Structure formats: C-alpha cells, structure tokens
C-alpha cells in the first residue's frame, strides 16, 4: 500500500473537468497548496497543506466515490511526498514550451485588465499581444511574448503568485497557439506592436470600463473608482452566496445573454432549455435560431446568473449531445414570433428564496431532488414517473416541514439531466413538481 502523503494522485480526469472542478471536491478538507493537471494522461496531482488533510480526503472518498461532470474520478496517495517547483512545471500541463501563455486567474476579487496583465508580465520580456476572455474555468488571458525564453521565464517566476495580496492567483500553462489575432486595442485585447488599431467596433462598449492601477505588482494598492465599482459588483454577487463566491465564479460578468449550441434539435425545445437554465437564474427570453436549429439564445436576468450557467453547464451531456454554452454578442433578445417570453413565469426559481437557490447551484449530477410532491405519493409512483429517462439506481422519500420531497439517483448524470429537463414543472397526481440537481448521496 502506498505511504500516506500530502500529494494525492487523481485518475480519470477527462478534458471536460477543469481545475476549479477538482478544487471543489478538495477544498472542504483543508488548504490546497498546489494543483498540477496532467492533461496528456487524464490525471492530476493535488498537494494538500499537510498529510492529515490528505488522509481525510482519501478516507472520505474511499466510501463516497467522487463524480465530476458525470465522470467518476479515482483518488490515491501519490508516490511524491511533495511537489517541487521543478516537478510542477515539468509535469505535462498540456504542451511544450511556447511563447504564448494561457493564464487562468483564480479568486478574482478585483477586475483584471490588459494594462494590469502587461504590468505583471512585461518585466520578463517584451509582450507583443494580450487577449482576455471569460470561460467556464473563469477569467483567462493569452499572453504572447516576442521569444519563447521570455515566456518560460515568466511561467517559472509567476506561476502560483497573486497579483493582489490574497487574491487573483495566477495559474499559467503553455498555449498550443502559434500566433494571437488581435483586432482592437482596449481593456480586453491589445497589440503592443500595432498602436493604430481601433478601440472597439462603433456602438459597442467595453466590458471593463476602467483601468485599475496595479501599483506594486504583488500588493494591493488603493484603487480608483473603477475598482470600487467592480468590487461592489463582486461583493453583491458574494452576498448572494452568503458571503463567498464558489470557485471559478468572479461575480464581475455583465453579459446576461448566452449562446447555447450543439444540443439535440430533435428533442430539445424552449421549455426544456428553460427547465435546465432556470437552475442558475431567472430566464427572461429564449429563442431557438431557425436557421441553426441546434443553436439558441438564452437571456438570463443578470450577469451573475449568466456566469453561473456558463460555468456549470459548459460541456454538460443531454440527449446524447455535449452542450456548448458561451456569452452571446447580443446584449438582449428582441421580442418576436420566434421568441418565448419567460420574464413573468411563476416557474422562475429565483423570485423567492434566491439565496438558497444560489447555494444549491452545481453542475449536473446523477441525483435529482423533487419537491412540491403530493403528500400521499409513494416511491413506486415517483419511479414510474421518471423511469422512462434512464436506469434508476436509488430513491429516497422523506418529509421536511410537513412537505414531501424525494431524491432519485440515476445511473448517469446525463440520464438525470434528461429527467430534469423533461419532467420539471409536470403534473404528478395533480401537483406541479419541481426538480433540481442534488449533491446529496442516497
């Protein structure tokens, strides 16, 4: 048997699993010192702050098999007693050294602009181009140096460092891109070799409307009005979760309309999209694009709810297809014959008990939670109502505050997702049932 270690070896880490997904299953057990993704091997190495925390992780998941985005991952102690900086950088994070770096920023409590990133990375060599974007893993940037050596120096010097004291941690790996294409010079993209590029297409405003002076690179200085505005936005988002945002959620996104693509056009419709996306916020409108029937626009109530949907539903499997969820270039969805209105729907989940609903947000799981059930319902009736969507491996009927509820576990998260999108808000013995994903075990 492998000796206990601070370092835990994780297997079966598929491409759909992000670093933030892994962090979520380790964080309840203590401080995570290092995380190395071995993408080429579908593996990861996670170093806890001490051996006791690592033992708690391994012992807990020996009894409760962890499942991330529908995939079972396997944990065991690593033969490494500690991950050194050399080991961390030499393990395959994806690619060979390259002059372009992919940077993910964790715990982003303050806005990060091109200017901030340039101040952080330029001491290590001439930075030619920077592109920033929001993905399911969080806020990310591509940094293109003039030379590969500069990129290597920057990665070795900055990996794991914080831009500001206690937050905005840099997670850096080599990109597999050869050249960045930059069309505009603004707070989100910049070509430092071509100052003549325009700031924006006419009529489109910048997502980050100001520059935050980074001051001393690794200590937080007094910030100006833009920092205050974004700090307030992040604080408001954190308050929705009871004081702390989930890993990978910045609370700084201000785009509320999403482009959803690659769904099964034969089985998905607007109401099913509503049932799925309303788990993460109130839905205003949905429009399936008739010229692209596997594409749809989904307008959420605000940017935080849109960010939650992107984060938790990216690559989710439903009806045999893997969803692609991104922010749309459209600020809103216009009304029309092809648009379904949901702004006044009493099925929107965040009209009441919003804080509770925020806390329950998660990626699709094998287990669904059913509420507003008939008082005299039986487990057999629940199974009969749902079994057409997959193999049910467990059920639990219980009562809370005099109200009947149930947990139903399917064989896969995809089957549970299908049951949710098809059976949420349907009638069962005269009651309109509500269904959500659950992280509880049966």
Task: Summarize the structure in words.
The protein contains eleven helices and 25 strands. It is an alpha+beta fold. A six-stranded antiparallel sheet has the order 10-11-7-9-8-12. A five-stranded antiparallel sheet has the order 18-13-15-14-19, covered by helices on one side. It has a four-stranded antiparallel sheet with strand order 2-3-1-6, with helices on one face.
Summarize the main sheet: 6 strands, antiparallel
**Assembly status:** single chain
Principal-axis shape equals globular
Instruction: List unreliable stretches of 5+ residues.
Output: 85-95, 203-232
Query: What's the Cα radius of gyration?
Result: 23 Å
Which structural class best describes the helix and strand composition? alpha+beta
Number of strands: 25
Let me know the average pLDDT.
83
Number of helices: 11
**What percentage of the residues does DSSP assign to strands (E)?**
25-35%
Strand order of the largest sheet: 10-11-7-9-8-12
Query: Percentage of helical residues?
Result: 10-25%
Terminus-to-terminus distance = 30 Å
């Amino acid at each position: 048997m492998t000796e206990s270690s601070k370092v835990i070896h994780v297997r079966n880490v598929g491409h759909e699993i992000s670093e933030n997904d892994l962090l979520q299953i380790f964080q309840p057990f203590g401080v995570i010192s290092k995380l190395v993704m071995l993408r080429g091997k579908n593996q990861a190495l996670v170093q806890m702050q001490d051996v006791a925390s690592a033992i708690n992780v391994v012992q807990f998941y020996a009894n409760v098999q962890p499942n991330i985005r529908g995939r079972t991952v396997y944990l065991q102690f690593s033969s490494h007693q500690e991950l050194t900086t050399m080991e961390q950088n030499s393990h395959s994070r994806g690619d060979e050294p390259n002059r372009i770096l992919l940077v993910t920023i964790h715990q982003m409590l303050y806005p990060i602009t091109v200017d901030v990133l340039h101040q952080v990375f330029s001491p290590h060599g001439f930075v030619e181009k920077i592109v920033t974007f929001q993905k399911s893993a969080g806020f990310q940037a591509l940094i293109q140096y003039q030379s590969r050596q500069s990129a290597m120096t920057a990665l070795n010097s900055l990996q794991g460092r914080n831009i500001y004291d206690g937050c905005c941690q840099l997670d850096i790996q080599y990109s597999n891109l050869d050249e960045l294409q930059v069309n505009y010079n603004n707070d989100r993209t910049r070509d430092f070799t071509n100052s003549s590029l325009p700031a924006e297409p006419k009529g489109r405003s910048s997502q980050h409307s100001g520059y935050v002076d980074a001051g001393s690179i690794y200590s937080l200085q007094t910030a100006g009005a833009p920092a205050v505005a974004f700090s307030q936005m992040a604080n408001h988002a954190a308050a929705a979760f009871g004081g702390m945002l989930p890993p990978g959620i910045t609370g700084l996104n201000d785009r509320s309309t999403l482009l959803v693509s690659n769904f099964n056009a034969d089985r998905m419709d607007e109401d099913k999209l509503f049932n799925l996306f309303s788990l993460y916020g109130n839905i205003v409108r949905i429009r399936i694009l008739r010229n692209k029937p596997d594409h749809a626009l989904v307008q959420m109530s605000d940017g935080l709810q849109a960010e939650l949907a992107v984060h938790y539903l990216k690559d989710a499997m439903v009806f045999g297809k893997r969803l692609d969820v991104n922010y749309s270039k459209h600020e809103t969805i216009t009304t029309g014959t092809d648009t379904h209105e949901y702004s006044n729907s009493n099925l929107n989940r965040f009209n009441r008990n919003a804080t509770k609903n925020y806390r329950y947000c998660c990626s699709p799981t094998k287990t669904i939670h059913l509420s507003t059930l008939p008082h005299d319902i039986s487990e057999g009736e629940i199974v009969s109502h749902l079994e057409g969507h997959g193999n049910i491996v467990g059920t639990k009927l219980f009562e809370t505050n005099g109200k009947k509820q149930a947990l139903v576990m399917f064989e896969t998260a995809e089957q549970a997702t299908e049951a949710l999108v098809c059976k949420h808000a349907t009638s069962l013995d005269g009651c309109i049932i509500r269904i959500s994903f659950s992280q509880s075990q049966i």
